[in-house]
Structure formats: structure tokens, C-alpha cells
Amino acid sequence: MKLKDKVALITGGSLGLGKAAAFLFAKEGAKVIITGRTESSLQKTVDEATQQGLELDYMVGDVSDEQRTIETVQHIIDKYGKIDILFNNAGVLFLGTTHETETEIWDKTFAINVKGTYLMSKHVIPHMLEKGYGCIVNNSSILGLKAVPGVAAYNATKGAVTQLTRSMALEYAQQGIRVNAICPGTIETPMVDNMLDAMPDRDAAEDFFKSFHPMGRFGTPEEIAHAVLFLCDDNVGFMTGTMLSVDGGWVAK
Ligand SMILES: NC(=O)c1ccc[n+]([C@@H]2O[C@H](COP(=O)([O-])OP(=O)(O)OC[C@H]3O[C@@H](n4cnc5c(N)ncnc54)[C@H](OP(=O)(O)O)[C@@H]3O)[C@@H](O)[C@H]2O)c1
User: Which fold has domain 7-189+220-245?
Assistant: First the structure.
């Protein structure tokens, strides 16, 4: 078990990539706490885990709400005594070119994808510093490294997450906290499903997005979860400040 006795906080853990990471981390022996805004969705995921013999805990909360973030972190510290791993995974995607993106959507995307990552890190890091140990993985994206047209706000937020990851890695490099980012290509999750549904021709859109990946397919949430687990493994303790692409070869183009 690679994460035996570790305490892991995963934001946005009810669906998609966060859910897959939560299940894998629990299988690897971690005590896992997932967050999300929708309690019914969190409860459903916890129930599914229980049916598979896995234990998950949850806290309802929006990552862009600082007070709720403080309460979430404090609850975990009171209950488990520490947070070893933080997977800043919660994120949202809205379609739109720069001039078509409503200001409200721009602000919301930044509030969740960037401010949410900053806030959770801000309130978890003091506890990691106290223990002299921590592993943070930020969920950036291939779109934190490359641009595509039509997702201006998302592209911009993921670029910010990439750079925030590098800043954080440098800040805590000598204090036992490693900070890396995962940069997934297109992965089969509810987020991508909803995005494809919003396109006028779903099949054509799917083919178009698949064409970005030299492997010619989308990735699975489990393939990303294993890469996040790799980043959290103490055996790769020399890795910090890395953008780990898991994208079927897209970044190589
Ligand atoms: N799927 C991809 O192709 C892909 C590729 C690259 C990067 N990513 C990144 O991976 C992360 C997860 O994506 P996904 O595809 O798994 O998305 P998803 O299927 O839409 O799941 C998103 C999860 O985040 C939660 N969430 C959303 N907003 C939140 C908020 N403000 N506070 C707390 N939780 C929130 C959702 O629950 P609630 O809605 O109930 O809050 C849900 O649990 C995102 O950061 C995304 O940008 C995804």
C-alpha cells in the first residue's frame, strides 16, 4: 500500500478525476476526504465506495468560499490530526471565445479554478509546514500548457494554475512540501460529456477533440488517478515543480 496511514484531501471528489483518485487512494491505504458543492453527489460516491469495501469521508463546500475552506481544513485536522496530501482538483469549464465569454463566467472560472486552488493551499500548507511534510498536486490541464480556441477563460485559469504550481514548489522546496501539477488531455468525465453535449454535433466534436491526441482516443479517469498517485509516492521525493502531462501524446506535438 503506497499511501498507508496518509490523510488525503481531494477537492471535487464526487465525480470524474477526483472520484477516481479518491477510490485509488483509499485502495492504497489513505484516509480520504472528498469535497464538492452537492451533498447528494458526495453521498452517492461515498456509498459506491462503501459497496466496494472502501472508506471515504466527505465535506460539502465550494472551494471559492474561504470561510468554508477554513472550516473544512479545521474539521479534518480535528478529526485526523494532519493533512499529508492535497489534490486541488475541483474545476469548471465553460465554452467561449474571449469576446463571447460573459464577465460573470470569466470571474466564476477564475474563482473556482485559480482562487479555489490558492485558498485550499493557503489553509492546508500551515499544517503541512508544522509536520515538515506535504504533497500537493494541482489539477492543471494540457490547456495549462497549450492553447485551443473557444475556451478562453478555462485556458487562462489553467495557465495560472501551472504557474502557481511552480511558485509553490519553489516556496516550500526546503520545507518538506512537494508541489506538482497533473496536466491531463481530454478524459472521459461528466465535464467532458457535458461539453460535448453542448456542441451542435456531438459526434463531430468528439472526433475533433480526439484528433488532438496522437493516440486517437480520450483518456480514462483511472489513468489520471494512477499518475496522481505516482506524484504522491514518497519514492519520487525528488519531484517538485513538475507539470506531468498525461495526454495521449498531445504535448509532444
Ligand atoms: N476531464 C478532462 O478532460 C480534464 C482535462 C484536464 C483537466 N481537467 C481538470 O480536472 C479537474 C476535474 O475535472 P473533471 O473532468 O473530473 O470534472 P467533473 O466531472 O465536472 O467533476 C468536477 C468535480 O468538481 C466538483 N466541483 C466543481 N466546482 C466546485 C467547487 N466550486 N467547489 C468544490 N467542488 C467543485 C464537482 O462537484 P460539484 O459540482 O457538486 O461541486 C465534481 O465533484 C478540473 O480541474 C478540470 O479542469 C479535466
Answer: Rossmann fold (3.40.50)
